[in-house]
Recover the amino acids of this structure.
Protein backbone atom coordinates (compact mmCIF):
# COMPACT_ATOMS: atom_id res chain seq x y z
CA UNK A 1 0.00 0.00 0.00
CA UNK A 2 2.79 2.36 0.98
CA UNK A 3 4.63 1.75 -2.32
CA UNK A 4 1.50 2.40 -4.32
CA UNK A 5 0.85 5.64 -2.48
CA UNK A 6 4.47 6.73 -3.05
CA UNK A 7 4.19 6.00 -6.77
CA UNK A 8 0.90 7.86 -6.86
CA UNK A 9 2.41 10.86 -5.11
CA UNK A 10 5.34 10.83 -7.49
CA UNK A 11 2.95 10.78 -10.44
CA UNK A 12 0.99 13.72 -9.07
CA UNK A 13 4.25 15.59 -8.50
CA UNK A 14 5.44 14.92 -12.08
CA UNK A 15 2.06 15.91 -13.46
CA UNK A 16 2.16 19.21 -11.60
CA UNK A 17 5.64 19.95 -13.01
CA UNK A 18 4.45 19.18 -16.55
CA UNK A 19 1.51 21.51 -16.06
CA UNK A 20 3.62 24.31 -14.69
CA UNK A 21 6.05 23.99 -17.61
CA UNK A 22 3.38 23.92 -20.30
CA UNK A 23 0.53 25.99 -19.00
CA UNK A 24 1.83 28.00 -16.12
CA UNK A 25 5.09 29.51 -17.30
CA UNK A 26 4.17 32.64 -15.37
CA UNK A 27 4.54 30.61 -12.19
CA UNK A 28 8.13 29.81 -13.08
CA UNK A 29 9.16 33.38 -13.91
CA UNK A 30 8.87 34.84 -10.41
CA UNK A 31 11.15 32.07 -9.18
CA UNK A 32 13.72 33.02 -11.82
CA UNK A 33 13.41 36.66 -10.84
CA UNK A 34 13.97 35.71 -7.25
CA UNK A 35 17.01 33.70 -8.29
CA UNK A 36 18.42 36.61 -10.34
CA UNK A 37 17.73 39.05 -7.54
CA UNK A 38 19.62 36.83 -5.11
CA UNK A 39 22.57 36.66 -7.51
CA UNK A 40 22.46 40.44 -7.92
CA UNK A 41 22.33 41.03 -4.19
CA UNK A 42 25.25 38.70 -3.52
CA UNK A 43 27.22 40.36 -6.33
CA UNK A 44 26.63 43.89 -5.04
CA UNK A 45 27.36 42.76 -1.50
CA UNK A 46 30.62 41.34 -2.70
CA UNK A 47 31.55 44.64 -4.34
CA UNK A 48 30.46 46.91 -1.54
CA UNK A 49 31.78 45.23 1.54
CA UNK A 50 34.83 46.60 3.36
CA UNK A 51 37.80 44.31 2.60
CA UNK A 52 39.00 44.73 6.20
CA UNK A 53 35.96 44.52 8.49
CA UNK A 54 33.24 43.18 6.16
CA UNK A 55 30.75 46.01 6.79
CA UNK A 56 28.64 47.06 3.82
CA UNK A 57 29.79 50.26 2.07
CA UNK A 58 28.17 52.92 -0.09
CA UNK A 59 29.15 52.69 -3.75
CA UNK A 60 31.16 55.93 -3.61
CA UNK A 61 32.74 55.47 -0.16
CA UNK A 62 36.48 56.02 -0.17
CA UNK A 63 36.86 54.99 3.46
CA UNK A 64 34.98 52.41 5.53
CA UNK A 65 32.38 54.01 7.84
CA UNK A 66 33.31 51.59 10.61
CA UNK A 67 37.05 50.88 10.50
CA UNK A 68 38.10 53.83 8.28
CA UNK A 69 40.15 51.56 5.98
CA UNK A 70 40.75 52.91 2.47
CA UNK A 71 38.56 50.96 0.04
CA UNK A 72 39.57 49.55 -3.34
CA UNK A 73 38.58 51.67 -6.35
CA UNK A 74 35.24 50.34 -7.57
CA UNK A 75 35.11 51.68 -11.11
CA UNK A 76 38.50 51.17 -12.68
CA UNK A 77 37.36 51.14 -16.30
CA UNK A 78 35.19 54.27 -16.25
CA UNK A 79 37.55 57.16 -15.57
CA UNK A 80 34.66 59.64 -15.25
CA UNK A 81 33.35 57.61 -12.32
CA UNK A 82 36.85 57.35 -10.81
CA UNK A 83 36.78 61.14 -10.35
CA UNK A 84 32.99 61.35 -9.81
CA UNK A 85 32.56 63.49 -12.92
CA UNK A 86 29.57 63.47 -15.23
CA UNK A 87 30.09 61.13 -18.18
CA UNK A 88 30.12 63.82 -20.86
CA UNK A 89 32.55 65.27 -23.39
CA UNK A 90 31.77 68.79 -22.15
CA UNK A 91 33.96 69.23 -19.13
CA UNK A 92 34.29 71.92 -16.49
CA UNK A 93 38.07 71.75 -16.34
CA UNK A 94 38.22 73.79 -13.12
CA UNK A 95 35.83 71.39 -11.38
CA UNK A 96 37.84 68.45 -12.71
CA UNK A 97 41.05 69.90 -11.32
CA UNK A 98 39.42 70.53 -7.92
CA UNK A 99 38.05 66.99 -7.77
CA UNK A 100 41.44 65.56 -8.71
CA UNK A 101 43.29 67.59 -6.08
CA UNK A 102 40.74 66.80 -3.38
CA UNK A 103 40.86 63.06 -4.04
CA UNK A 104 44.61 63.00 -4.39
CA UNK A 105 44.97 64.79 -1.04
CA UNK A 106 42.89 62.06 0.63
CA UNK A 107 44.44 59.09 -1.12
CA UNK A 108 48.08 60.01 -1.73
CA UNK A 109 50.45 57.24 -0.52
CA UNK A 110 52.23 59.75 1.76
CA UNK A 111 49.09 59.78 3.92
CA UNK A 112 49.33 56.04 4.47
CA UNK A 113 52.92 55.63 5.64
CA UNK A 114 51.69 54.69 9.14
CA UNK A 115 48.93 52.37 7.93
CA UNK A 116 49.06 48.66 7.08
CA UNK A 117 50.91 47.51 3.97
CA UNK A 118 47.53 46.43 2.50
CA UNK A 119 46.24 49.99 2.75
CA UNK A 120 49.51 51.39 1.42
CA UNK A 121 49.24 49.29 -1.69
CA UNK A 122 45.56 50.26 -2.18
CA UNK A 123 46.54 53.93 -1.88
CA UNK A 124 49.27 53.44 -4.50
CA UNK A 125 46.87 51.69 -6.86
CA UNK A 126 44.14 54.29 -6.26
CA UNK A 127 46.50 57.22 -6.57
CA UNK A 128 47.88 56.10 -9.93
CA UNK A 129 44.34 55.44 -11.16
CA UNK A 130 43.37 59.01 -10.18
CA UNK A 131 46.42 60.39 -12.03
CA UNK A 132 45.53 58.39 -15.11
CA UNK A 133 41.89 59.54 -14.96
CA UNK A 134 42.93 63.18 -14.62
CA UNK A 135 45.44 63.01 -17.47
CA UNK A 136 42.90 61.48 -19.80
CA UNK A 137 39.88 63.58 -18.82
CA UNK A 138 41.68 66.92 -18.94
CA UNK A 139 42.76 66.35 -22.57
CA UNK A 140 39.81 66.73 -24.97
CA UNK A 141 41.17 64.24 -27.54
CA UNK A 142 41.87 61.55 -24.92
CA UNK A 143 38.55 62.30 -23.20
CA UNK A 144 36.70 61.81 -26.50
CA UNK A 145 38.54 58.55 -27.17
CA UNK A 146 37.73 57.26 -23.68
CA UNK A 147 34.08 58.23 -24.06
CA UNK A 148 33.92 56.37 -27.39
CA UNK A 149 35.51 53.35 -25.73
CA UNK A 150 32.88 53.43 -22.96
CA UNK A 151 30.22 53.41 -25.68
CA UNK A 152 31.83 50.27 -27.17
CA UNK A 153 33.22 52.30 -30.12
CA UNK A 154 36.94 52.20 -29.41
CA UNK A 155 38.99 53.75 -32.22
CA UNK A 156 41.77 51.61 -33.64
CA UNK A 157 44.51 52.00 -36.24
CA UNK A 158 42.16 50.93 -39.02
CA UNK A 159 39.87 53.89 -38.36
CA UNK A 160 41.17 56.41 -40.86
CA UNK A 161 39.77 59.35 -42.77
CA UNK A 162 38.89 58.14 -46.26
CA UNK A 163 38.76 61.62 -47.74
CA UNK A 164 41.52 62.58 -50.26
CA UNK A 165 40.66 66.28 -49.97
CA UNK A 166 41.13 66.28 -46.20
CA UNK A 167 44.39 64.34 -46.48
CA UNK A 168 45.70 66.83 -49.07
CA UNK A 169 44.78 69.67 -46.72
CA UNK A 170 46.78 68.00 -43.94
CA UNK A 171 49.78 67.49 -46.22
CA UNK A 172 49.87 71.12 -47.28
CA UNK A 173 49.44 72.25 -43.66
CA UNK A 174 52.44 70.13 -42.68
CA UNK A 175 54.40 71.63 -45.57
CA UNK A 176 53.48 75.15 -44.44
CA UNK A 177 54.89 74.38 -40.98
CA UNK A 178 58.11 73.01 -42.47
CA UNK A 179 58.48 75.95 -44.83
CA UNK A 180 58.02 78.41 -41.95
CA UNK A 181 61.43 77.24 -40.70
CA UNK A 182 62.41 79.39 -37.71
CA UNK A 183 60.20 82.34 -38.63
CA UNK A 184 58.60 82.92 -35.24
CA UNK A 185 55.80 85.17 -36.46
CA UNK A 186 54.81 82.78 -39.21
CA UNK A 187 54.85 79.88 -36.79
CA UNK A 188 52.76 81.80 -34.26
CA UNK A 189 50.21 82.62 -36.96
CA UNK A 190 50.02 78.97 -38.01
CA UNK A 191 49.67 77.97 -34.36
CA UNK A 192 46.74 80.36 -33.82
CA UNK A 193 45.05 79.31 -37.06
CA UNK A 194 45.39 75.65 -36.11
CA UNK A 195 44.10 76.35 -32.59
CA UNK A 196 40.92 77.87 -34.06
CA UNK A 197 40.32 74.71 -36.10
CA UNK A 198 40.86 72.56 -32.99
CA UNK A 199 38.40 74.65 -30.95
CA UNK A 200 35.82 74.39 -33.71
CA UNK A 201 36.27 70.63 -34.03
CA UNK A 202 35.93 70.18 -30.27
CA UNK A 203 32.63 72.08 -30.36
CA UNK A 204 31.43 69.79 -33.15
CA UNK A 205 32.49 66.70 -31.19
CA UNK A 206 30.55 68.00 -28.18
CA UNK A 207 27.43 68.29 -30.39
CA UNK A 208 28.11 64.88 -31.96
CA UNK A 209 28.22 63.22 -28.54
CA UNK A 210 25.12 65.09 -27.41
CA UNK A 211 23.14 63.90 -30.43
CA UNK A 212 24.71 60.44 -30.13
CA UNK A 213 25.95 60.57 -33.75
CA UNK A 214 28.64 57.95 -33.29
CA UNK A 215 29.96 57.84 -36.86
CA UNK A 216 30.24 61.64 -37.06
CA UNK A 217 31.94 61.67 -33.65
CA UNK A 218 34.49 59.07 -34.72
CA UNK A 219 35.26 60.94 -37.93
CA UNK A 220 35.74 64.25 -36.11
CA UNK A 221 37.86 62.64 -33.38
CA UNK A 222 40.18 61.20 -36.05
CA UNK A 223 40.36 64.64 -37.70
CA UNK A 224 41.15 66.16 -34.30
CA UNK A 225 44.07 63.73 -34.00
CA UNK A 226 45.61 65.15 -37.19
CA UNK A 227 45.23 68.77 -36.03
CA UNK A 228 46.57 67.95 -32.56
CA UNK A 229 49.64 66.37 -34.12
CA UNK A 230 50.23 69.60 -36.10
CA UNK A 231 49.62 71.58 -32.89
CA UNK A 232 52.28 69.52 -31.10
CA UNK A 233 54.68 69.89 -34.01
CA UNK A 234 54.44 73.71 -34.06
CA UNK A 235 54.56 73.85 -30.27
CA UNK A 236 57.79 71.82 -30.23
CA UNK A 237 59.45 74.18 -32.74
CA UNK A 238 58.28 77.26 -30.79
CA UNK A 239 59.66 75.73 -27.59
CA UNK A 240 62.99 75.04 -29.23
CA UNK A 241 63.06 78.65 -30.44
CA UNK A 242 62.44 79.80 -26.86
CA UNK A 243 59.05 81.35 -27.72
CA UNK A 244 56.96 79.16 -25.35
CA UNK A 245 57.75 77.13 -22.23
ZN1 LIG B 1 35.86 48.41 7.42
Amino acid sequence: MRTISLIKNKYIFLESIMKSETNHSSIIRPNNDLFNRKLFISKTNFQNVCWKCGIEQGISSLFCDKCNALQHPKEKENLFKVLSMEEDFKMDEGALKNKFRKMQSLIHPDKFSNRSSAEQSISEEYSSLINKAYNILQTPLKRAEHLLELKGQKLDENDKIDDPEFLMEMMSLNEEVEEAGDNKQLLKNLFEKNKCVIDQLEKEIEDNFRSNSIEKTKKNVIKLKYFISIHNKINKILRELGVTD
Q: What stands out?
A: The two ends are 99 Å apart (CA to CA). Residues 184-210 form the longest helix (27 residues).
